[in-house]
Structure formats: structure tokens, C-alpha cells
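User: Could you go from structure to sequence for me? I need the amino acid at each position, not a summary. C-alpha cells:
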């Protein structure tokens, strides 16, 4: 089988698997009355695609399985974190606002605009991993640099999430803005960490110039984290909280930097 044919089979298998995953997530979301379950499926979807790509790889297997391992560690941690955080809570306000605009059936609108859309985004964003499995050469310095960037981003995101979880668990902090630890350096440690993770994975995948053609996938992920459903929407949601304006004025929106003094 040629590399092109193998890649085509990989792309098709990933699409079918993601369709199955989002349909299962949709069924669960309808049953529990909370369509934010797609956020748990988000990380798992990338793991599924990376696993399929590693299993079907026709190029360097070490690179393909390294990409799977890094994606699995990131995706499973994210899914567990989001799933645990959602326990005992209702629908995410972001989805409430989105689905309130449904022209007809709320569930049908959710299927199109939440589940199928995010499944398509997972397929698109994971293109570097899929392409790399069939065109890349042996691991080299660029891949090791990418693994280092992935490790930095993963640690930054995980530490930021842990700091916020401890902050919210303290009743004395109810209604207060988290402005400590990494959250004093950037308003979104999780989104910044995510960006580093995915640019790191892209560098690990770059064993051939063909992978460079998938750069738009990384641009989409970066846009989502900064101007799409990430930073921008969360800032809008938090904007009416007491103390937010002062916090936003002294703290970087995305790239970490020392906080401005008041």
C-alpha cells in the first residue's frame, strides 16, 4: 500500500471512529440533560485518533507511538479533570447560551453545533499526527525539542488546574477571583499550556516536509484557544464578576508575564 493510500485509510478510519464517539457522547448528554459531556469526549477523541494512527502507521513506528503516548497522557488527564469538575453541576453556561438560540429542537441543534462540529475539529486538528504516521523519518532533534515543549505545556496546564481546584475547594474563596500561582502570570494557564502541548506535538510529528502542510490545523487550535471558545468566551463570562476588571488589568490575557503592580 502506498503512503497516500495508507493515509487515506487512516483519515477515513479516524473519521468513522470520531463519528461513533460523538454519537455516544450525544446519547449520554441527552440522558443526563447536560451537553457539556462533549468536553470530556474532546480529549478522548484525540487519543482515539492518535491510537488509530499509531496502529496503522506505515512510516517510523517510534514517532507514531510517541505521538500516541503524549496525546494519551494529555487527553486522559484532561477528560478526567473536566469530568470530575462537572460532577454535581448542571449545564455549562456556554452551552446554555449557545443552545438558547436553537431555531428548533434543542437536541438536534446540539448534535449539529456541538457534537458533530467538535468531532470535525478533532479530526482537523489531529491532522499532523495522522499525516506523520505515514510520511515521517526517524526521530531527531526537532522531535525531542517538541517533546520538551509538550512537557512544559502539560506541566503548566496541570499545575494551573490543580491550583484552581484547591482555590475553589476553600470556602473562604467563594466569589473571589483566582489570582495566585500561575494565575497571577496569565489569566488562562490551561489554555496557554494547551497551546504549548499542541505545538509540541506538531514538532514531534515533523519528520517530513509533508507535515508542514498541516500547519493550518495548528492555527485552528490556537485560534480556538485564544479567540474562539477559549480565552475570549471565558473572559466575557467572567467580566461581570467583582474584582475581574482589576485582575484583567494587571494580568496577561494569554502569554505568561509577571503581573503589573497596582
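Assistant: Here is the amino acid at each position, in order:
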Amino acid at each position: 500500500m502506498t503512503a497516500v493510500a495508507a493515509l487515506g485509510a487512516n483519515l477515513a478510519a479516524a473519521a468513522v471512529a470520531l463519528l461513533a464517539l460523538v454519537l455516544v457522547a450525544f446519547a449520554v448528554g441527552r440522558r443526563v440533560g447536560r451537553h457539556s459531556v462533549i468536553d470530556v469526549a474532546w480529549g478522548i477523541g484525540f487519543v482515539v485518533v492518535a491510537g488509530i494512527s499509531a496502529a496503522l502507521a506505515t512510516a517510523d513506528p517510534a514517532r507514531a507511538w510517541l505521538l500516541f503516548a503524549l496525546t494519551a497522557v494529555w487527553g486522559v488527564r484532561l477528560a478526567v479533570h473536566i469530568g470530575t469538575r462537572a460532577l454535581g453541576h448542571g449545564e455549562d453556561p456556554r452551552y446554555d447560551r449557545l443552545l438558547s438560540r436553537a431555531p428548533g429542537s434543542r437536541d438536534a441543534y446540539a448534535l449539529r453545533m456541538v457534537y458533530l462540529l467538535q468531532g470535525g475539529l478533532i479530526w482537523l486538528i489531529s491532522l499532523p499526527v495522522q499525516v506523520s504516521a505515514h510520511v515521517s523519518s526517524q526521530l531527531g532533534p526537532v522531535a525531542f525539542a517538541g517533546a520538551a515543549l509538550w512537557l512544559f505545556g502539560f506541566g503548566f496546564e496541570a499545575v494551573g488546574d490543580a491550583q484552581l481546584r484547591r482555590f475553589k475547594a476553600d470556602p473562604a474563596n467563594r466569589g473571589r477571583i483566582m489570582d495566585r500561582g500561575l494565575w497571577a502570570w496569565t489569566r488562562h494557564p490551561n489554555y496557554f499550556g494547551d497551546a504549548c502541548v499542541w505545538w509540541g506535538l506538531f514538532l514531534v510529528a515533523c519528520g517530513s516536509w509533508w507535515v508542514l502542510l498541516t500547519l493550518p490545523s495548528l492555527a485552528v487550535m490556537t485560534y480556538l484557544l485564544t479567540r474562539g471558545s477559549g480565552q475570549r468566551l471565558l473572559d466575557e463570562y467572567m467580566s461581570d464578576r467583582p474584582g475581574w476588571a482589576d485582575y484583567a488589568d494587571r494580568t496577561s490575557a494569554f502569554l505568561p508575564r509577571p503581573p503589573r503592580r497596582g
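One structural detail worth keeping in mind: The chain has one domain: 3-250.
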